[in-house]
Specification:
Layout lengths: L11 E5 L3 H12 L3 E6 L7 H4 L11 H4 L16 H14 L6 E3 L3 E7 L3 E6 L4 E4 L1 E4 L19 E4 L13 E5 L3 H13 L2 E5 L6 E2 L2 E2 L2 E2 L10 H15 L21 E2 L2 H7 L3 E4 L2 E5 L2 E4 L4 E3 L2 E4 L17 E2 L2 E2 L13 E3 L4 E2 L4 H21 L3 H7 L9 E2 L1 H15 L31
Parallel strand pairs: 1-2, 1-7, 2-3, 7-22, 8-19, 9-10, 9-19, 10-15, 11-14, 23-24
Antiparallel strand pairs: 4-5, 5-6, 12-13, 16-17, 17-18, 20-21
């Protein structure tokens, strides 16, 4: 189902992506009467859970952290629902709140440009072009694959973790998984069950968190009462009680803080390491045919390499001038927008610890507030935020408590009407950017 734009596009917005973030944003827009279309490159809602997650995957945070508060997951769901159950949940969510009518499926966005009168011109892969008052980018961060440079030299089988679907791809194969994140741990453990050999290459050591503690999902353990100085001590005690000491696995102690990188959550990896079913290796040094030499001088022959080396944050439909940031994070005000452009918002680009559901409703309402301010004042809300002391976002890693604290602050204090007075000047006009070539075959979700 799809709904065409009206001819009058005044105060009409486009949401790019119908994953969890796009759906949560659409629901709030519908509730608050903000006119919008939603473009989804795939044939169904769910984003990465629909098109990019292997069939045996289960959520890492518990269902109460993953679900939208206004639409809880079924009681019949386990604490850690499967990929199929999560997909079903998002489909049911979209049906329940009647969101399908505004979604244009198989509608890939290939270019977004600012044009006259503070509008945005959007070009689609099917050749259609439309103009919108604003564009909200929810295209996710689990689609633009990052590959190790040495992979091209390998003559055996090779694929990225994004292309992993089921354990059948690992059966009777001696497999090297490169990476230290959640996908790497999941895949190497599945290789330990069905493969001829399971090896995990880590460039640097990581903190391994459990999914449960004392029988309770970690996502349900609240530390809101804990002062910051004590929080690190408790987290360290938690890891010592579950994973143990890194030296016990012949691993170095991680050089980074607990949340300086996205957490790695696995209860299976310690089990298979203890049983000798998974062998740890350091970084890859060289590859010749199917023989891999590691930085410790050891060599092994492999049938398969799985690169669980992560993803790049990418917006191929935007001009380079509108992608401001580095190393996975953007420089935005209000975690969503720039100071010099009206109507352009990046939503869901950060890696927030825990589930997106509990956060999406409150953050989507902040975005709706921003839009109402821009429509009333005809200036970028980022300019207002900067003027009242809001700092640019400096990291893509955040905790749920940080998000809630920021939302409470920005909604109750910083955006009071008296604050509007600190932004003088004539009506704002977005700077037009010359059209740039866009590869139509780029994956945009």
């Amino acid at each position: 189902m799809s709904q065409k734009c009206n001819a009058n596009l005044q105060n009409h917005y486009l949401i790019i992506g119908a994953g969890p973030v796009g759906l949560g944003l659409a629901k709030v827009f519908k509730d608050r009467g903000i006119r919008y279309d939603q473009a989804e490159a795939d044939s169904e809602v769910g984003g990465n859970w629909y098109h990019g997650v292997y069939k045996t995957a289960h959520i890492l945070s518990c269902k109460t952290a993953m679900e939208f508060p206004e639409y809880p997951m079924p009681e019949s769901y386990p604490d850690f629902p499967s990929q199929n159950q999560v997909c079903r949940y998002f489909i049911d969510y979209a049906h329940h709140f009647d969101l399908y009518g505004n979604i244009m499926f198989r509608k890939k966005v290939v270019q977004v440009l600012p044009v006259a009168e503070n509008l945005w011109q959007v070009s689609f892969a099917d050749g259609e072009e439309k103009k919108y008052t604003g564009v909200l980018i929810c295209n996710g961060h689990h689609w633009c694959r990052r590959h190790p440079a040495c992979a091209a030299s390998f003559t055996g089988e090779y694929f990225h973790s994004k292309d992993y679907n089921s354990p059948e791809q690992l059966v009777n194969k001696k497999t090297l998984v490169i990476g230290a994140g959640n996908s790497a741990c999941d895949i190497v453990c599945e290789s330990a069950r069905v493969g001829a050999g399971a090896f995990l290459s880590m460039r640097r050591s990581v903190w391994i968190f459990p999914k449960t503690f004392m029988g309770k999902p970690l996502g349900r353990i609240k530390l809101g009462w804990v002062p910051p100085f004590l929080e690190k001590f408790l987290i360290h005690a938690l890891i010592r009680c579950t994973f143990g000491k890194h030296a016990q696995y012949k691993l170095d102690k991680p050089a980074h803080g607990f949340f300086d990188r996205h957490p790695t959550v696995s209860e299976e990896l310690p089990y298979y390491l203890r049983h000798g079913r998974v062998t740890l290796k350091p970084d890859v040094l060289t590859i010749v045919d199917q023989e891999i030499t590691f930085t410790d001088g050891t060599k092994e022959q492999f049938d398969l390499i799985v690169a669980a080396t992560g993803f790049d944050l990418a917006f191929p439909f935007l001009p380079k001038e509108l992608v401001r940031g580095e190393k996975g994070h953007l420089h935005l005000y209000g975690h969503a927008t720039y100071e010099d452009y009206k109507g352009l918002y990046f939503v869901g680009w950060q890696q927030v610890r825990g589930g997106v559901g509990s956060l999406m409703g409150v953050f989507a309402n902040v975005i709706a507030d921003f839009i109402e301010i821009e429509e009333e004042l005809q200036l970028p809300v980022g300019k207002l935020l900067k003027a009242i002391g809001e700092k640019c976002s400096s990291t893509h890693l955040m905790g749920a408590r940080q998000v809630f604290r920021w939302v409470k602050s920005v909604r109750k204090k910083k955006l009071q009407r008296k604050s509007y007075l600190v932004v003088p000047g004539p009506p704002h006009r977005n700077k037009a950017i010359a059209a740039c070539p866009v590869k139509i075959n780029m994956e945009v979700y």
